[in-house]
Amino acid sequence: MKIATWNVNGVRARIEAIVAWIKASNPDIVCLQETKVIDKEFPLSQVEDLGYHAVLYGQKMFHGVAILSKLPMQNITYGLPGIQDDNQARYIEAVISPHQQIESTNMYNRPICIASLYAPNGNPIGSEKFLYKLSWMQHLEKHAKSKLASGGMFVMAGDYNIIPSHRDAQNPASWEQDALYHKSSKAAFRRLIYLGFVDAIRAVTDSDQAFTFWNYKSDSWRKNNGIRIDHILLSPSAADNLNFVGIEDLVRSWNKPSDHVPLWADLNLASCLVPHINHRYCLSR
DNA sequence: ATGGTTGCGTAGCAA
Question: Closest protein residue to B9 using CA and C1' atoms?
Fold first, then answer.
């Protein structure tokens, strides 16, 4: 199961590129961020024509997240749990794989929970926006901890707006006064890792060139002045089934690109098949 | 570089 994430910077401006990329990449699940559109104006028919279901959590002008999936989705959560009176559409979560029986066996697929998130940018440092970024990350940590407690497969994909380490920027020094690279931001990301998540990219490479974002300004793409701020975090049971990880960086060279590129992780869910349990006593870990 | 670019929506903010 190929799970992709892409901050598209405006789904209406990007729909042609999204359709072309989906046809080329054929993901099973797509987490979108910065759709910048209310739900009724989302270009739904164009993704449905490609065979995807969609769940949407958008708002006017800013932010906005969505999940597209070839399989139907259940138990949708709109907004990051625990944030009161949040007026920013930055989180949506859905459960996929409805315990389908595999043909002519008694094996079933385990459900997998997918989150599409768009964490706050937080600039400038010291502002209300910065405090909101750190607060939002605290709520994410709390929610993620409760999700891990179940032991089920959980994948958090999206734009975290955090550069985790010096390896994740072409020019780390230029980010030192930026909220994306502030020590409190990096600490918030590490706390997610400490919970037990696996950073999908770092499971497969130590490369210092694994960027997902290049600023529109100052010719950043041509100079490869990039950063890695889009991440796929895998719960332990999801990470156990990780096959491949990829960054579709060439999408950045397309006409009218987003400033972010798609990132994906492929899980071998065939190895996640579980027998249908009929026993009276069933031990879980 | 107190800048540089893009999307949304049509001024100026957010990134």
Answer: A61
Asked whether strand B has any atom less than 7 Å from the CB of A133, the reply is no
Pairing of strands A2-7, A29-33: parallel
Q: What is the DSSP letter of A21?
A: H
pTM higher than the cut 0.90: yes
CA gap A21, A59 in Å, rounded: 24
The count of domains in chain A is 1
Residue nearest to nucleotide B1 (CA to C1'): A218
Contact flag, residue A18 CB and nucleic strand B, below 7 A: no
CATH code of residue A54: 3.60.10.10
Task: Give the CA A277 to C1' B5 distance in Å.
Answer: 56
- Report CA(A251)–C1'(B9) in Å, whole number: 26
Among chain A residues 211-240, those with CB within 7 Å of any atom of strand B: 216-218
The type of residue at A39 is: D
Full domain range(s) for residue A253: 2-283
Given a cut of 50, whether residue A86 has pLDDT beyond it is yes
CA distance A284 to A132: 38
Q: Which residues pair with A67 in a beta bridge?
A: A31, A55
pLDDT tens-digit readout, A45-69: 999 999 999 999 999 999 999 999 9
8 Å CB contact between A141 and A192: yes
Q: Is the CB of A9 under 7 A from strand B?
A: yes
